[in-house]
Design goal:
Two copies of one chain form a homodimer.
Chain A lengths: L2 H7 L7 H12 L6 E8 L13 E2 L3 H10 L4 H8 L12 H10 L6 E4 L5 E2 L6 E6 H31 L5 E3 L9 H12 L3 E2 L2 H7 L9 H9 L4 H11 L5 E3 L5 H18 L6 E4 L4 H14 L6 E4 L5 H14 L7 H5 L2 E5 L1 H4 L9 E10 L2 E4 L16 E7 L5 E8 L9 E5 L7 E5 L5 E4 L2 E5 L2 E2 L6 H13 L3 H4 L8 E4 L1 H16 L6
Parallel strand pairs in A: 6-7, 6-11, 8-9, 9-10, 10-11, 15-21
Antiparallel strand pairs in A: 1-5, 1-12, 2-4, 3-5, 3-19, 12-13, 14-15, 14-18, 16-17, 19-20
Chain lengths: ~525, ~525
Amino acid sequence: MNASESDIAERILRVDQYQLTMAQVYFRTGLHEVPARFEYFFRTCPDYGGHRAGYCISAGLEWLVRWMADSRFRDEDLAALRGQRTQSGEALFGEDFLDWLRSHGAWSGVTLRAVPEGRVVHPNVSLAVVEGPLIMAQILETALLNHLNYQTLVATKAARIRESARGQMILEFGLRRAQERAASAGGRAALIGGADFTSNIGIARLLGQPPKGTHAHSMVQAFMALGEGERAAFRAYAEIYPDDCLLLVDTINTLESGVPNAIRVFEELRAKGHEPVGIRLDSGDLAYLSIRAAAMLDAAGFTEAKIVLSNQLDEMVIWQIVTQIEQEASRYGVDPDGLIGRLVYGVGTRLITSEGCAALDGVYKLVALRRDGAWEPAIKVSETPEKTLNPGEKRVWRLYDERGKAAADLLCLAGEDPREMDEIVLRHPTEATKRRTFARSRLTECEPLLLDVLKDGKPVGEFPTLDEIRRRRDADTARLDPGVRRLINPHIYHVSLSQRLWELKQSLIEQALDGPTRET
Amino acid sequence: MNASESDIAERILRVDQYQLTMAQVYFRTGLHEVPARFEYFFRTCPDYGGHRAGYCISAGLEWLVRWMADSRFRDEDLAALRGQRTQSGEALFGEDFLDWLRSHGAWSGVTLRAVPEGRVVHPNVSLAVVEGPLIMAQILETALLNHLNYQTLVATKAARIRESARGQMILEFGLRRAQERAASAGGRAALIGGADFTSNIGIARLLGQPPKGTHAHSMVQAFMALGEGERAAFRAYAEIYPDDCLLLVDTINTLESGVPNAIRVFEELRAKGHEPVGIRLDSGDLAYLSIRAAAMLDAAGFTEAKIVLSNQLDEMVIWQIVTQIEQEASRYGVDPDGLIGRLVYGVGTRLITSEGCAALDGVYKLVALRRDGAWEPAIKVSETPEKTLNPGEKRVWRLYDERGKAAADLLCLAGEDPREMDEIVLRHPTEATKRRTFARSRLTECEPLLLDVLKDGKPVGEFPTLDEIRRRRDADTARLDPGVRRLINPHIYHVSLSQRLWELKQSLIEQALDGPTRET
């Protein structure tokens, strides 16, 4: 796809067909401008197969809003709709409907509240609330899900990798194996969730970050094919980047060729007054090779040289490498903590594709419609109880306990404020017998999670910078119970309904199940 | 990201940093214009965990070439490079290097041969061969991998889903859970590999295809919240789309509410002279519900109504549904084959994310450099034998046997032609003891797989249409051994080296392993 093609495929027409067929139904039945409320939430934390996330990191909101600013029904978009035909060969969409889209098919009537990017978020909690004319709030569904699901998924994986890396630097290397142009959003989400830098120059440039990278095997191969060797390739690199010299040492044989050649070149560098940055290992037993390489670098006096590891890393592989180093390094005369503290992780495919769980199951559901000046709650009952919606006009609060840790996210009805409750009843979203009381005296802080983003289509305030988003992530993860942060078998974080919301939900379920018999 | 941002992030700067740091090394050492040859191939077919692909479908080539046509080093791209700093605070890239990129940083010297889109392809076979000045052929790596890996991955998943669907229609519904803007490339790849239509209006428009879609639960919910019911919602839809009426019947209760309401509305439609299209089931036991729904539709005289199934479908789930229908339908008085023949599959998340295997392991490797007028083969030796390159200037042939089936893909040296060999020796790429002879008499056809795409940067011919690509896919899959097409435990398709290529590879491995000791 080239640039002009992306202009037609990725603006307002980045939408599922059924949003438009439904939109025309709303238009013809006069419902199109009825105020509607939709909520975005995901149902489960990513399960990677054998391990699963205990929390997610929200991401994607700024890009959703930027997409909205770029996307409205223009003549070229309407032409695409006008060309569609019914089974009987007539125009699928009427000209009056297309006219309405031309004049009203934008976001000026849409209000958006959302959890800011970088926050720790949990299943079944509304992360974005859209209010606006039914037709536009409905059409927004596809793009909203497309933006928020993917970035939240990748930011979450990055946060897990950060947990396993024990504070060491993480480099995002995923562009080549990324899902085509998702590499940009994926790179951004990785930087939000846990990566320190990316190799992707485009996204780094866009976010005002320096990209990172060194060289590939092909550089060494090229020198070899032209009759020179690995050491000549290293020397050429060192000469051009004397203060940024990081050498990939596994093109031929890591311990017999790569590391000795790198040390020789590092010695030449030092003789000229420069310090090398380090080496990169990209194959083999990374724990064993890093121990042996560290011993060789130490013996040569390069105790500060970094060791960058890459090759199908993820949180589990990093954890295994760290554990193996702790168990084996001393046998080779290497201090395990010292070695772990000089490691840098280059993480590619498994981060940007969220290996093991390639999609977040986020959904966007109609929860209320405004009729005669009041919000009428809407519900969808499912034979799977977990899929039955939490209806109505809600608020989301995060409750902190006497330790200052986040204890639960509470979904309430509008007008309810946990700070004014004598005791806070936490109802399980689906199981009637699961309830508990959170004593008012334990509540040290009660924080609304949803903030205004768009009011009547206009942005409320500036977007936070990447650094601000990362500080929010760090603050939130620090206030999580360590059990929730565990990589394996994390504690379930409590997401609860207030007593009144629970009661509303039960009564609507009853009504819905009784409903069909009354229709004529 | 908005449109102007994508312009900076997704043209030539959609590249890994190390391509540019290496490029400057080539420039400073005078190697930048040495003709180089790189090859793209993947190492293994996708393994989805418990089942794996026996072949892949190539896709992504046209979009790679379109990206190339749009991407060169412009002033704004060079400004991003000029801003980069070394550890010591100096400019990372010199002005002379940036000047070279400004004047030469495009694809005019690059020649590309590739396997066309839609073809059946196999591991370790070169699918794209790039020749050009070392510096530009190197820089192309990231974008080439990014384009070809993802579309080939998704086209392959779509082909598997097509295998399981027994010729029934497949709809691609993945936009909402796709990896953000990869939805466009993913939608295209799904249409190449096996999907008949997509719900994504943007990509359908771009490819000149009609999008498909009906309505969501929210339409029924909206009518309910406003005091009406499911049947009223269905009626409204039927009135607006009398010849395109496909109703989602599981918002309340599929068998007690949805299907009876749909039948009532279908009867009203028929009374007005219209035939309904059918119903969609999106939850619950899809096999059981489709049997029961078919019985109800049949009893009401709607024997032609389609039953669209959706909800986390993939090739395994579809296979299970079909098998269950075969075993259970007759018990409910429903003809299994008749029911299977009226099913349509809406496949979303698991197709566009290639559930279970979210990345193809495609790589792009330097295989030769031109020196003194001749190609010098380049090799990278790996401690994992499968990762050691097949070096040099090669040709790829597909051999067909006496049944007309594809028997093997043979990698030869340039100048070798299997049609001129008395007997064709097929060497395993890594294992010396695995070899066999393909009798010349069995060879019914011998086809070169790589075609010219770009010569010195200029396109050779037109791109095939989507229909042409699909016909190629069908022709190729028809000529595969059924064992290779199996969804579970497919036969290994033979990819072999010619005797001469095998010998070249062995001698280069020896040289490389001896090499390092000779350096000073």
